[in-house]
Specification:
Layout: E1 17-20, E2 24-29, H1 45-52, E3 60-61, E4 70-76, H2 79-90, E5 95-103, E6 110-121, E7 127-131, E8 144-156, E9 159-166, H3 173-180, H4 194-202, E10 210-218, E11 225-229, H5 234-240
Parallel strand pairs: 4-10
Antiparallel strand pairs: 1-2, 2-4, 3-4, 5-9, 5-10, 6-7, 6-8, 8-9, 10-11
């Protein structure tokens, strides 16, 4: 087949673009969309984007978001931008904010959480992360320091809307830290409260309430300050309205 025979693929992600120039492509990733194909997912965000942009010479994910998480996801259209962004992330020069709704009434306005995390694999091949408390164990060598600053955005009866500022970006960091503290993210199918998740589904929360809401950083090529915002998805905003605000 010659090139002209290629049927253009149906655009799924074009409407989710928040920002684009010749170096960057930033999308508001829908919940339930894996960033990478594999493990039962034929096409993730990166494969889909490449299929939608067959002429793009370079397109790479800058970082990951869990499949169930929505919000700001950065892709690089130039290698120089990818390298620069990785350097910025390593040196904590990006300000990433997430919104999450947790079970329980969060007591503090601001809390800095530092925990050591380690990855492990379940017998079925699924990746999981846990908190390492015993520093004397050999396993501790593989542990990674994780750090987040949590802010209380809105107190509800029995629930709390939090904003998290990532200091490190470990796998499942927010989900594991919050579950460990006894404030699991609602709808989290790996670390959450399963009985609670089930009852919340009946009340209309069909997904994990975790959203990458805002990323601030300098443009990796031009140095211009960028503020990338992904509004809270309608289904999450709607669920918040069903809760009772704590007076």
């Amino acid at each position: 087949a010659n090139e002209n025979d290629i049927t253009p693929i149906k655009s799924v992600l074009e409407s989710t673009i928040i920002f684009e120039d010749d170096a960057l492509l930033i999308i508001d990733k829908p919940a339930g969309f894996a960033v990478h194909g594999g493990s039962g997912v034929s096409r993730g965000v990166i494969e889909q984007m490449r299929a939608e942009r067959p002429k793009a010479k370079f397109l790479e994910l800058v970082h990951r978001l869990d499949r169930e998480t929505s919000g700001v996801l950065m892709l690089a259209k130039k290698r120089v931008a990818l390298v620069a962004l990785h350097e910025m992330i390593r040196n904590n020069l990006t300000d990433k904010r997430y919104l999450m709704l947790v079970a329980g009434e969060w007591p503090e306005q601001k809390k800095r959480v530092k925990l050591d995390l380690q990855k492990y694999v379940l017998p079925n091949g699924e990746r999981r992360v846990n908190v390492v408390l015993d520093k004397s164990k050999d396993k501790y060598d593989q542990a990674q320091h994780s750090e987040t600053i949590f802010y209380l955005k809105q107190a509800f009866v029995g629930f709390s809307l939090l904003e998290a500022q990532l200091i490190t970006g470990r796998t499942h960091q927010l989900r594991v830290q919050l579950a460990h503290l006894g404030f699991p993210i609602l709808g989290d199918d790996k670390y959450g409260d399963f009985a609670n998740n089930k009852s919340l589904q009946k009340k209309g929360l069909k997904r994990m309430f975790l959203h990458s809401a805002e990323t601030k950083l300098r443009h990796p090529v031009s140095g211009v300050q960028l503020q990338l915002i992904a509004p809270l998805p309608a289904e999450l905003a709607k669920f918040l309205k069903t809760l009772t605000v704590k007076s």
